[in-house]
Structure formats: C-alpha cells, structure tokens
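Worked example 2:
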Amino acid sequence: MALTGKLWRMLEPQGPLLRALVATATGQRRAISVGAVRDARFCESSDEAVEDIEDDSKLLVGGFGVVGMPENLIRAVRDSGPKALTVVSNEAGLDDFGLGMLLQTHQIKRFVCSFIGSCKELEKQYLAGDVEVVLAPQGSLAERIRAGGAGIPAFYTPTGFGTLVHKGEPIKFDHDHQVEIESRGKEHRVFHGHHYILEEAIVGDYALIKGWKADRAGNLIFRKSARNFNVPMAKAAKITIAEVEEIVDVGTFAPEDIHLPSIYVQRVVKGENYEKRIEYATTRKRGEEHVRIDPKTPKEKLRDRIVRRAALEFTDGMYVNLGIGIPMLASNYIPNGMRVIVQSENGVLGMGPYPYEGEEDCDLINAGKETVTLVEGGSYMSTDEVFAMIRGGHLSMTMLGAMQVSRYGDLANWMIPGKLVRGMGGAMDLVACHDRTKVVVTMEHTTKKGAPKILEECTYPLTGKHCVDSIITEMGVFDAHPARGEITLVEIAEGVGVEEVRAATACPIEISENLKPMGQIEI
C-alpha cells in the first residue's frame, strides 16, 4: 500500500518516528530507529506546497521589505483563500506585492510586525479598525521567534522598558478610532541595576521562507541580505515551507557553508516566477566615491549643517548603526583612511556606499530598503544575529532621527497617535543598551510649524527612556544628562544666538562654560 501525499502531509507535524512506523507498516521502509530521518518533501508547485493551510492558521513569513520574501508562496496562499490568518513578519511588503496582497483580499485577521513599511494598506486597515496589528521591536521580534524555535518560552530584555511595548499598546481600533483591543502590560524585573521586561516566544503553524538554493537533502543557503528573518522563522514553525531559486544535488555546496540545516525544512518548492522588485534603487555615478547633495535652498543648507556635524562623531575602528536620512548621509563624509564599519538591521555588517548605476543587486539592501554594496571584510547574517550584536552592546554608536527628545534623554521617533504609524523597527533595540553604546540623535530643532522638539517631556509614545547621549540640530550640539534631567548646549551654530536657542527649546537648557562654535567636517 502506497502512502499518498495527503497522508504524508497529515503526518508531517507528528514527527519522524510516527511517520517511520506508518511507512514500515505499509512496506515503504525496511527498518526504523529512534533517530529516523525526516526528509524534506519536494513539491511540484507553490500551490501544492500550501494547499493544506487552513483558516485561522498562524504563518511566520520571512523577508525584510521585499528582499528574501517568499513571493510565490504568498501568491499561492492568496489563491487558495484561507481566512482569519495570523501573520508574523517584519513588515507587509508593498500594497500590490508580498503580504500586501493578503491584506487586499482581507485574509489577515492579525498582523504581528515591527514596521508598517511601504504598505499603506496595512496602515489604513489598522487605523480603520479592519485588522489587528501587534507592533513589536524588531530585535525582540527576531529573538521571540528564535526562542520559539529553541524551545525557550520567554526571556527578559531591556528593549521597550517604559514604552507602550511594556505598558500596553493599541492592537485594534473601532470604527470611531477608539482603542478596542489593547495588549496587556509586561512583567518587569531589575537585574544588576538595569530594567528588563518579559517577552514571550513566538511559534507558528507554518513558516513560509525564501532561500537561494536547496540541495536534495533539504539544506538551504541564502544570498546576501536575503537571509534576514528567514532563518529564525524556519526553526519556529511546525511545518516550514521553503521556496528557492534553484534545487541542486547534495554536495554542490560544502557542509560548512549551509545556512539552514534540513532538519528545519519540511517542504521545498522551486519558485515559479520571481519579479525580484527593488523598493528603492539608489545608485551613484561612475567616478563618484560617495553621494553628496549640493545644498541650494535654505532648508537644504540647514540640513547639510547637521549632516556635516554628525560626521565628526565617527572615529577610526568604530562599529556603528545609522538610521535612514541624516545619519546615513553623514556616512558619505567619513574621511579617507578612516575605517568605520556600518551595521544594518537586515543582516549586513560592513555596509558600503550605493552601487554604481546598472550594478544594483536586488538581494543587497540596507534597513531603509535602499540598494547598497558591501565593503571588503564585510559579512551577512540573520536578523536575530544582528540584534544580538546590538543588545549585547557590541556597537560603538547608534545615530538616529527623532520626533521628540525630553530633557531626561527620553526619545520618541516611531508614532504620532491617530495619524502616523511607522512602527518602531529596530530603534527600541538600538537605544536599549545606551550604557554601552553611545546614542546620538540628529534632527531639525523644530517642527515644520515651528514647535520645539526638545521638550520637558515627550508627548508622543516613547522609543526609549533616559537613552540619549547627544543631540545635533541645525542650531547646535547638546549633551544630555538623563540622570540629572539636564540638556547642555556645548556647540552653537554660526549666526545663532543663545537666546534664540532657548526660545526654540521647550525645556531649560544649560550653557557650557566652554561653549564652542558648531563643528563642520571639511570637504
């Protein structure tokens, strides 16, 4: 009696021993052992690979933006039509591509993610109360998934202490924009004088992941920054379904080069069609070492002043993480001969400048989804590894933007309630180890309407408490002293007076006895 494909699929979650027993009883296996191998099944199509995903399933979906996203499996899920899905993914992709397609067809009930990203459909449905959204810090999300795959039910992390992640955040709004469902607060403990909150592990019914190549044993390798969330998600699901670009014979790649061993993979399918979209194709022209903007308008000149002062924060041998916008622009002014190793949350250590025109690589991006390059000596890794570096305090400095900073060094940069919902991305993790990693904020001193952004207390939801070390604006440079609740002006921009700075700041500021002119890196 032959085992049908349907029966094999029913037995997949039950483990190798039960399937081996059934195989022996039906004459399909001569002998069994406790260590029986669970071979990956190679499917003929993406439709076949996902055909048993039912309503109310919990899906872990790999990718960072559209890089490493299992686009063929997602299309197959859309076409097969399961409803009321819980989806765990870093973000939703685009409105018409990736998980945005499942939002368009209203197949998702709850979305667990760190960032809304470029998917306006998710933001719209969240604010309208049509979908539940659980926003989680990017590093905590990766570690919760990794913990789920490792059999660890929960862990303590400094990320998110004192924020909505800790105290409870809105998950669902009603149609009058009032909070209908809110997450419960999280347990808080103090270890060695530092604050931590309890995060629970995440596991799923299915993981949908995207690899580069699979061998016939079911081992996977990934290409460049496409590894990201795929590796931890594959380990945390009952059934992992991997779509790959190529299936090769065993031995094609060396055992030590395998990124994901076959034990974590239950089904493999060769993807039928790859669009390989690039969200932001950013390039430089031949002969350009860096991309530098020649400021012309008054606003551009003020922004350039911040950029060129921020560049003075770099020192030789630093490991840094740079936010999108001014921080990333500052890296274009790193002096020749100075080695600064730039890390990116999507799995890149040693990020280089934008590629030359025509040399963009769809599998090599930064955390802002821009095409980049890798410097000599750089490396790639999964997202959980990236945040182990961050939370472990291995970075020298993180530089990021802000909507607001308080006199106590509190930071807000991810959400304007009822309006802008960005998601916190990796920012909460990046500022969580401020005792070991310097936190530098770059921002314009006031909003477009002239309202101060350095305040007595932040009015927007916090990214981190007592975490900011330094603030760079177009008006000057400020040292923050969170324990004392003091902001000290240490450098002042040319043509700006002290009283002008005070008037644009909504909290008392100290003036350094050694107040200096605001530095600018030489071009």
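Confidence is low (pLDDT under 50) at residues 1-5, 20-24, 26-37. The longest strand covers residues 204-215.
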